Amino acid sequence: MKKTVRYVAMDVHAETIAIAMVAPTLIPTQARDRVKTDRRDAGKLARYLRGGDLTAVWVADEASEALRDLLHALQLDHATRGSICPFCWTK
Predict the structure, then answer these.
(1) Closest CA to 30 of 43, 50, 44
(2) Is this prediction's pTM over 0.70?
């Protein structure tokens, strides 16, 4: 299975390492930032983090993911009028 950022974050959290996940759309940008290098990006991220300009996002743990999957399955079942779980929607 390919490891996504979510699974890497769960592994790091399991090791009790402090991390902050930031959505790329929440990183401040300027119009003149056209040249992108790893070194410049790392420096900008460090300055933004130190200045408090980054907003951390919540990464779901395994229990939250399981609950989300269950609710999604129940919503799909409800949309198909209980064809998967007929006793779940009886009154």
Answers:
(1) 44
(2) no
